[in-house]
């Protein structure tokens, strides 16, 4: 009886030890993170820093030599067309010889011809403005009926603002040419006045805008052509971003964009690419790497009040959408890896990892477009480690917890 009990005891113990050893060596599923393949919107954008600038900055210079009276304008002051920006007491005209007199007369004729050309350009600008207004009104009516898209009305609004700016520049050019004629006549004939106040030459603003900076403020002698102020119209604000040439070739005029980083916790500002400059330039990065850069110019498409806090030369961050799909089959980039020169993922099939080659299209760094190899609803392994191989058992980490 005792012998039989001992036999049964040691037999049971041996079976238990063998079972424990087998259980310890039995393959366990690898804990992994997973994601489900879904269809949805996918966008690809190129990003880089940019800066704002007023489209047309007017550098106001002294048209004559003389004595500059003190300039009271400060940066940020609003100005209107015709406001006196600076006052100069011209130097007494000297007696001109025949050659100098001929040059002065030729300067008057040249200035008058330039004024005629400016007037012709102003007529062209007015015609373009009228056409832009008609196009904007027509597209606005079509947009109300649902025929025209939001992108079309935004583009028409941008073209209208550009036409208005061009018309304003043309009128400013006429006023500048008239000032040049007046300065040339003063050089030839003198002021023709005996008292100091009537001899003062007033430099007037050609536009409505603001003073950007005052180059010369104090009273003193000034030479003809010396810079005095810079002015501009803030409503003509645009963005210039220096993109790598490899990125710039992906975008075209009309591509939508978003402007961020201009104010803390501020929503993105909508914008649109107006021009990709054809001339690249070399720039050395902070790491000492030589890069080829291209200027990409963008226009704001939202309401002017949304970006009224921005000024000339402010830093912003730009993101230009170069590709977009509303119904793309998306896979997380974290699930992709290279296998024999092609892309592949581990698809979870009956709690086992199945090596699956895939063909990838567009990629934004977070998700990629699946062209072949997966279908909506498939589950893939994220960040597959060395323990994940074809046919290995896997278990979602979230379900295990």
Tell me what the structure shows.
It is a single chain. This protein is α+β, with helices and mostly antiparallel strands and 401 residues long. Helix content is 31%, strand content 38%. It has three domains: 30-40 and 326-400, Beta Barrel (conserved putative lor/sdh protein from methanococcus maripaludis s2 fold); 45-53 and 235-324, Efflux pump adaptor protein, beta barrel domain (Elongation Factor Tu (Ef-tu), domain 3, Beta Barrel), CATH 2.40.30; 59-233, no CATH class. It is built from six helices and 22 strands. The strands form five sheets. The chain has a six-stranded antiparallel β-barrel. The protein has a four-stranded antiparallel sheet with strand order 3-10-8-5, with no helix packed on it. Strands 7-6-4-9 form a four-stranded antiparallel sheet. Helix 2 (98-144) runs antiparallel to helix 3. The longest helix is centred in the first third of the chain and has 47 residues, at 98-144. It is elongated and about 140 Å long.
Map the helices and strands.
Blueprint: H1 2-25, E1 30-36, E2 38-54, E3 57-61, E4 66-68, E5 78-79, E6 84-90, H2 98-144, H3 150-189, H4 196-199, E7 201-204, E8 209-214, E9 220-222, E10 227-232, E11 237-244, H5 245-248, E12 256-260, E13 269-284, E14 290-300, E15 315-332, E16 337-339, E17 342-349, E18 352-357, E19 359-363, E20 367-372, E21 379-382, E22 394-396, H6 397-400
Parallel strand pairs: 1-22
Antiparallel strand pairs: 1-21, 2-11, 2-15, 3-10, 4-6, 4-9, 5-8, 6-7, 8-10, 11-14, 12-13, 12-15, 13-14, 15-20, 16-17, 17-18, 19-20
Descriptive tags:
Elongation Factor Tu (Ef-tu), domain 3; 401 residues; alpha+beta; 31% helix; six-stranded antiparallel β-barrel; 3 domains; elongated; four-stranded antiparallel β-sheet; conserved putative lor/sdh protein from methanococcus maripaludis s2 fold; single chain
